[in-house]
Design brief:
By secondary structure, this protein is an alpha+beta fold. It has one domain: Alpha-Beta Complex (Nucleoside Triphosphate Pyrophosphohydrolase), CATH 3.90.79. Helices cover 18% and strands 34% of the residues. Strands 4-1-6-5 form a four-stranded mixed β-sheet, covered by helices on one side. A three-stranded antiparallel β-sheet has the order 3-2-7, with no helix packed on it. Strand 5 and strand 6 form a beta hairpin. The longest helix is centred in the middle third of the chain and has 13 residues. It is globular. It starts with 10 loop residues before the first strand and ends in a 6-residue tail after the last helix. The structure holds 8-OXO-guanosine-5'-triphosphate (8GT). The site of 8-OXO-guanosine-5'-triphosphate has 18 residues, from strand 1, strand 4 and strand 6. 8-OXO-guanosine-5'-triphosphate binds next to strand 1, strand 4 and strand 6.
């Protein structure tokens, strides 16, 4: 079967938006070998059995970027049906972490004010307008 049925159990995914004091956020580009290679996303990955969503977030940031997340607030949830999977994305915003991002999976990454990298994963596209709104509320200027 190549298409996940709409009733197929959703896969929980923990996703983190690292936000610098000036409002810039970190995006990564999916490496070769993963579905949607070359697409840009906020770093994260699937929650493993028996793991909390926050623990999954912390694990993925260590594995992919060598970053230790110290704290993060749940921000929003998005459910999306891809041809390969039905995903439930749990987005967090973190302003407190240790370390500089490293490309541990060979992926590119970029700090962005107004997000301009393309293409973005489909389920992540609405987040950009919501982030711009948040940035406006927090009075970050676009660049
Ligand atoms: N990390 C992340 N995943 C996203 C975003 N948007 C989005 O649709 N996804 C989807 O969420 C799922 C994440 O799975 P993944 O393959 O990256 O997870 P993983 O790192 O645990 O992969 P692995 O199974 O190769 O270890 C994918 O289906 C991906 O398309 C996003 O902004 N960030």
């Amino acid at each position: 079967m190549t298409q996940a049925s709409p009733n197929h159990a959703a896969i929980d995914v923990a996703v983190g938006i690292l936000m610098q004091p000036n409002g810039d956020v970190l995006l990564g580009q999916r490496p070769t070998g993963k579905p949607y290679a070359g697409y840009w996303e906020f770093p994260g990955g699937k929650v493993e059995l028996g793991e909390s969503i926050f623990d999954a977030l912390k694990r993925e940031f260590v594995e992919e970027l060598g970053i230790e997340i110290l704290s993060a607030e749940p921000w929003c949830g998005v459910q999306h049906q891809y041809p390969h999977a039905n995903v439930r994305l749990h987005f967090f915003i973190s302003r407190e972490w240790h370390g500089e991002p490293q490309s541990l999976e060979g992926q590119a990454f970029a700090w962005q004010g107004s997000v301009r990298v393309e293409p973005l994963l489909e389920a992540t596209i609405p987040l950009i307008a919501w982030l711009d709104q948040l940035r406006d509320e927090l009075r970050f200027t676009s660049n």
